[in-house]
Amino acid sequence: MTHTASLNSVVRLSDYKPYPFSIPSISLDFCIEERLVQVTSSLQVEPLADSQPLILRGVDLELLSIQLDGKVLDAADFVLDGSLLRIPAPPLQPFTLTTVCRIDPHANTSLEGLYASGGMLTTQCEAEGFRRITLHPDRPDVLSRYRVRIEADRQRFPVLLSNGNALSQGPLSGDPSRHEAIWDDPYLKPSYLFALVAGDLREVRDHFVTRSGREVALRLHVEPGDEPYTSHAMDSLKRSMAWDEKVYGLEYDLDEFNTVAVRHFNMGAMENKSLNIFNSKLVLADAETATDGELERIESVVAHEYFHNWSGNRITCRDWFQLSLKEGLTVFRDQCFTADLHSAGLKRIEDASMLRNSQFREDAGPTAHPVKPDAYQAIDNFYTTTIYEKGAELIRMLRTLLGEERFMAGMRLYFQRHDGEAATTDDFVAAILEGASADRDELGFDPEQFKRWYHQAGTPTVQIHRAWDASTGELTLRFRQSTPPTPGQPEKQPLVIPLLWALLGPNGEPGEERLLVLDQEEETLVLEGLSPSARPPALSLFRRFSAPVHWQAVQDVDELFLLFAHDDDPFARWDAGQQLWRTLLLARASGTRDSDLEQRMLEALRGLLAIEGESDPAVLATLLAFPGGAELEALQKEADPPALFQAACGLRECLGRVLAPLLHQRLEALAPQLSQAWPLGQGERQLTAVIWSWLAAAGDGAVWAQALAAVHGPSMTLARAALRALLPIDCSEREMALQCFYDRWQERPVILDGWFALEAATPRTDGLARVEALLAHPRFDPMAPNAVRAVLGGLAGNPLVFHAANGSGYRFMAAQIIQVDQRNAITASRMAKVFSRWRSYAPERQALVKQALDQLAAAELSTNTREVVALMQQG
Ligand code: BES
Ligand code: ZN
């Protein structure tokens, strides 16, 4: 049976119906042959309602036989229609349905279902990949106990893994060249959590003793030669297990936990029950081969997938509209984990910055959708920053509104009440509120109104107006919230917005933090009895980034500088600086430098950079970081990426030139800590990176040489910082540094992807020709999404080449997406979102992108990519 992509078939939440059968257990038999794999599946089926047809899904399967209670089904007893198998009148009593299918993992380039990566066979079933393995309802509300037998050649596939407990493994009696393994997973699970891995893998072993004293075997499986790079991931796993016990009281529930690293993988990692599968870039790492940022990312992804064991696996999603139930919650949990282990303040800034630069952009464009969408064509297109990061923000707002203790009581009830179930986001909110034993009246907000956050797309804006009576000391704050129209949602209603705020003293002394809940379109807060003075007290707003909204600064420049120097909330302090950086960069991009403000910023920076200034290098580096391009584009009348790029280069050049003596002084002070192992020395390296980028932009030859030397050095963080500092500058050090990085790491695909990305992002005049050469490079693997994303993502981030005035960058990207789509729809449709900002460009630029989109739309595309392209053409 083949996959006939049904055009425009929309799946709607309102059409949800429970599956009319339960399938308490499934037995799967995989016979791995030379090229093909034969899959025998026996489903125990129990009808839940009278006389309903049984519907199963299958894609790219060769159906060899189908039996009901051991009897071959007559052709008249079932209908095969594209990817659907229908048995119109199944028995009204429990029965066993046995199917035998053949699949070809080597021909499967989609990286969904069972596929080959290197010499191994591996699976990816979320969201709808299980139907590429066998006939099954393949929906998350059908939960079964799985028993799996795998049989394969012993030499080619010495390791045979699946979910749950290994019951037995050994040679086949008839044929000593072959062996088998039998796995049993005692927990009910949906098909998307099924996994199988077969290959010649090396195992790294460790263990974890749970708080109730059970010993869990931890096994990490990697390709031969990669064993030395596994200890960071293994340590991260142990920290995650300990954290979930300590904070949520949740223990791991099986005797073994397996993790496999795979080179060819569409996503970052996957939480299959007790058999997590990771993109190898998120496993293989040490300080010499990965940056600090990558080490932190690995720690958080390992935690994320581990945390899914409860938030996702033990409690799963009823349907894919509930995706944020597991993803938003698990992102929230991994954010808290990282905040606890490192710096809560800096983590919050990272998350806020990420939200502003990716989620806000999504929310403002043609693919905007609510955290709980009500319709989709391809579910793979909905693994978005809105479902993940905005979903996590909604949970964080609940915590802010309820307070930590009550919120955690709610979480405990959620995990108890829904264990073993497929739940909804409504179930989640209900459990949180009930567990918090929050009385409607003392809640301080209306839960139904809060739930609008799940259904309304778009980023709300809060306008703030301030009036100050200098003689009486009365401060009046007026708030007005609005949410812009988004595709399919022209009208918006007011939301529940928690606003954490404080007033600072005249010299920046911290004031008491308070919570204000905004829930009307307009409301007013009057504060009386403040000390009368000419200027109002400085206002610290949306502390800890208490809601995922835009707001317009009411503070004047003096106040912003005061907050930038003194606000005791790390987010609000950083944000005051961001307001200033934004103003400076936007002015430069529009061709009118704000010299006064630049002078004042230089003054402030002198204070911070001086040795007696800001002493925490990580904080300082964060304060000095420019706002992201996406954020700035959204503030321009006509988004102009090349102008923003030039503005950033120009400002860095100015800062590097004017502040050179102070910057060098800081660099020297940082040097002794640079060689410390992560997480130590991280702030020092981060600050060094910022300083290098400023001084390099100012043409400081000594720094160019220092950067070039770092590429040979022992720290990947510094090597990549050096390359980033040199990248915008047309100098021989840049070319030498790139060459040197390539020479050093050419044998290591995961690291070389970083080189591909940097090369593609280098703003050279012959940039497009270089990108073409990269795609034809002998070490470029077109089947590895990491490599494709490195080159095409690097190009998309190359302001001068991608956004070339003749449109060549756009057309080239469109042609590449069409090619990628032929083999890997998931990767292609994600890539297609690089065009999502096009409606905000100037008319000439819009016309060029439109050509590229038309080129895409005229091609034969997958359902996934077609959905994205169509949205962008409408938007
Ligand atoms: N369940 C997802 C992975 C996934 C999603 C696989 C869709 C296939 C299709 C996993 O838990 C996840 O969310 N992974 C993220 C990383 C995470 C830290 C946010 C990823 O893969 O990017
Ligand atoms: Zn996840």
Tell the overall outline: globular
Q: What is the oligomer described by this structure? A: single chain
Q: Regions with pLDDT < 50 over 5+ consecutive residues?
A: 2-7
Q: Can you give the mean pLDDT?
A: 97
Trace the largest sheet across and list its strands: 6-5-9-3-2-12-15-14
Q: Please, how many helices?
A: 29
Q: Tally of extended strands?
A: 31
Return Rg in Å: 28 Å
Q: Characterize the largest beta sheet: strand count, sense, and whether it forms a barrel.
A: 8 strands, mixed
| Beta-strand percentage range | 15-25%
Distinct bound molecules: ligand BES, zinc ion
Assign the structural class, choosing from mainly alpha, mainly beta, alpha/beta, alpha+beta, or little secondary structure.
Answer: alpha+beta
Percent helix among the residues? 40-55%
Q: CA-to-CA gap between the ends?
A: 36 Å
Overview features:
single chain, 875 residues, 8-stranded mixed beta sheet, 5-stranded mixed beta sheet, 20% strand, disordered N terminus, binds ligand BES, binds zinc ion
Characterization of this structure:
This protein is an alpha+beta fold. The chain is built from 29 helices and 31 strands. The strands form eight sheets. An eight-stranded mixed beta sheet has the order 6-5-9-3-2-12-15-14, with no helix packed on it. It has a five-stranded mixed beta sheet with strand order 17-18-19-21-20, with helices on one face. The protein has a four-stranded antiparallel beta sheet with strand order 10-11-16-13, with no helix packed on it. The chain is globular. Zinc ion (ZN) binds next to helix 3.
